[in-house]
Amino acid sequence: AGWFRRLLHKPKPRSSESSLHTICSASSSPSSSSAESSGSSSGTSLARSIRPSPVSVSDINASGSARWAKSYDVCICHSEVDLELVEELVSYLESQPESFRCFLQLRDATPGSAVMTELCDAVQNSHCWVMLITPSFLRDPWCKYQMHQALAEAPMANGRTIPVLKDVDRKDYPRELRNLYYIYMALKENSFRQIRDTVVRYLQELCRSSTSRTE
């Protein structure tokens, strides 16, 4: 009887402790990912609320950020045939809260400079390189040259070279890029968002590693 009375009078955990336990359980349980993928609002909100964001947009944009060590955030490598689409992508990226600095060859190249010099400088002075791989890209020797320059600059750097396939079969995907995942442009808006998220992720890693070196 004594143990039963103690059980009845056992204090209930505080609501904050209960919610903390719920969040911890959601983060450690494999079912949280399935809940998120199935569209459960509670599972999604819990998973996102505990996801760390060690480097914010303000950190990326800070005056002392490693981002400013280069002239451009993104260099777009493309065929002139695809200029209209590329201009839409550049307009999208430059209008984001991060105000990405994009190198667009026909807009930003110095008149009178050698094409080879401009392409090399654009690669060296950019953090990330978007390769818009279309049938025209595959036929353009200057596009292939710039692609090789990017791979020589950082052959295994995650997130620096961003291949984007449009109207190209997977079998025609350049062999030089086979070790990199690519974005397949089906819906333009989704692809633009993926490119933006990839650039943000790389800049976050860049700022994080730069901060750790200075501490």
UniProtKB/TrEMBL annotation:
Positions with biased composition (Low complexity): 25-49
Protein name: TIRAP protein
An example Gene Ontology molecular-function term: Toll-like receptor 4 binding
Chain positions covered by the region annotation Disordered: 1-58
Protein's organism: Aramus guarauna (Limpkin)
Pfam families: TIR_2
GO biological process entries: positive regulation of canonical NF-kappaB signal transduction; positive regulation of chemokine (C-X-C motif) ligand 2 production; positive regulation of tumor necrosis factor production; toll-like receptor 4 signaling pathway
Biased composition (Basic residues): 1-13
UniProt cross-references to SUPFAM superfamilies, sorted A to Z: Toll/Interleukin receptor TIR domain
Domain of life: Eukaryota
All copies of domain TIR, residue ranges: 70-206
GO cellular component, one term: plasma membrane
Matching PROSITE patterns: TIR (PS50104)
PANTHER family linked to this entry: TIRAP, TOLL_INTERLEUKIN-1 RECEPTOR DOMAIN-CONTAINING ADAPTER PROTEIN
